[in-house]
Specification:
Layout (H helix, E strand, L loop, with lengths): L27 E3 L5 E10 L4 E7 L11 E7 L4 H12 L2 H10 L10 E9 L2 E9 L1 E4 H7 L6 H20 L2 E2 L8 E4 L6 E3 L6 E2 L26 H4 L6 H17 L11 H13 L1 H8 L7 H11 L9 H14 L26 H9 L18 E3 L2 E3 L6 E6 L8 E6 L21
Antiparallel strand pairs: 1-2, 2-3, 3-4, 4-6, 5-6, 7-9, 8-11, 9-10, 12-13, 14-15
Length: about 450
């Protein structure tokens, strides 16, 4: 039997998390560096509050082409604070620029941190953070392409992610939650991709001191169940090899459309054991995923290289790049800097699933780096009249982010609260890849 989802605390219900009130366009915020920012329209909503278009303060109002977004949450909430620590330590523009120069890179897909601070309004305090505005996420592109990406595109994405992971690893962090919905295209350049959502990011090497391998039953299966690493399934904190293992699962799914264990995602022990078997025999795993003529040898070589790593090992990033570049050469392609999202010939879209109210509500509450248009006000549903009696429509369940109780763990997880809860509800918090904290 799969383990039950953890409660937020032993014998007690999770504390309610306050949502930030909506600020009017033109609201001015001052960060800790005394830089002044002006809010535009809200363009995204997460469990903590709203995400706004933003720009440096001026007489002009913030337009739809603003270059920045600001995330806001009540100061006593935790999710943004967790992510903020990563951005402040590892995503300052000068750090990123220096890395790009030393590694001769034209771009690096880590959103830049431009400022943060506290804002008071109506006697309440709010935390905010300013980062780059980004575009659409790759999960949407994946669905549009019939849940298959062209081989060239997958290898290009793999190469870009190796650059990103080498950067964040060199700055003492691992991401631990790589997946298509956490990869976003640049708002201004569709050929650049960014890794976002550092809510599960872990500082594996504070001040250069590596954390030792240690299993904690309370942390088992952290991350997104389809892709999370075997280490995470066993309750160990993420390592550099964990990120690369997750990346390999992503690349396989993008190429073949489905991982072998996706039929039983509600059973984390089954998923864990399936991944262990895949690592024990990578060739057999690849045979399950691909026909003999479609099998990408470079992905098998990539997985074999990652499999050989010990928990504390520094990954051979250059060797892994060479493997993916050899894959491009094998299909007579090269990384020309252009990301082409075109349907694969013969790819069949997965059957359309009926979207339940619960999943729809989860998607609406999902954190995002905020692309698209300003949020539209929801239409109020009128009461229906039955036999002369007015009845109110059923309310959808509310969603909120609940902090984990692991000691020293400031990460958050999405938990569904409905009027009638049942075991496993917390494991189905969203319609796209499921994130399980068991």
């Amino acid at each position: 039997m799969p383990p039950k989802a953890k409660a937020a605390g032993k014998g007690r219900a999770p504390a309610k998390r306050k949502l930030a009130e909506e600020f009017p366009p033109g609201e001015v915020l001052t960060d800790t560096g005394k830089k002044v920012w002006k809010l535009g329209a809200p363009i995204g909503q997460g469990g903590f509050g709203l995400i706004y278009l933003a720009d440096e303060n001026s007489a002009k109002s913030v337009g739809a082409d603003a270059r920045y977004v600001i995330k806001v949450e009540p100061s006593d909430n935790g999710p943004l604070f967790s992510e903020l620590k990563f951005y402040m330590r590892a995503a300052k523009p000068d750090l990123i620029q220096s890395w790009m120069k030393s590694h001769k890179l034209k771009s690096l897909g880590v959103p830049r941190y431009w400022g943060s601070g506290l804002h008071e309004k109506g006697g309440k305090r709010y935390r905010f953070m300013v980062i780059d505005r980004l575009g659409t996420d790759l999960q949407k592109k994946f669905e549009e392409c019939g849940r298959r990406f062209p081989r060239k595109l997958v290898l290009q994405l793999g190469l870009r992610l190796l650059d990103i992971l080498e950067y964040i690893h060199d700055h003492e962090y691992v991401h631990a939650d790589i997946k298509a919905s956490n990869l976003m295209l640049s708002y201004s350049d569709p050929n650049q991709v960014y890794l976002v959502d550092y809510g599960l990011a872990y500082r594996y090497s504070p001040d250069g001191v590596l954390k030792e391998y240690k299993e904690d039953p309370k942390r088992c299966h952290d991350g997104t169940i389809e892709f999370t690493s075997i280490d995470a399934h066993k309750g160990a904190t993420a390592s550099r090899r964990s990120d690369l293992e997750i990346l390999s699962y992503c690349m396989v799914q993008w190429l073949c459309g489905r991982l072998p264990w996706e039929d039983k995602l509600q059973d984390p022990l089954y998923v864990r054991d399936s991944k262990i078997r895949s690592q024990d025999n990578v060739s057999e795993f690849m045979t399950k995923c691909f026909s003999s003529q479609d099998k990408p040898d470079e992905i098998q070589r990539f997985m074999e290289e990652v499999k050989s790593l010990e928990y504390l090992d520094k990954p051979p990033y250059e060797n892994l790049r060479s493997i993916l570049q050899a894959g491009l050469k094998a299909i007579q392609a090269k990384d020309d800097g252009k990301l082409i999202f075109s349907p694969v010939i013969g790819a069949v879209s997965s059957p359309a699933k009926k979207t339940t109210k619960r999943k729809k509500a989860a998607d609406e509450a999902e954190d995002s780096e905020a692309d698209g248009e300003p949020i539209k006000k929801k239409r109020v549903t009128k009461k229906k009249e039955v036999n002369g009696v007015k009845k109110s429509p059923k309310k959808p369940p509310t969603l909120r982010k609940v902090p984990s109780t692991g000691k020293g763990d400031s990460k958050s997880r999405l938990v569904e609260m409905s009027t009638q809860t049942s075991p496993g509800l917390a494991q189905r918090a969203r319609g796209r890849p499921k994130k399980i904290r068991a």
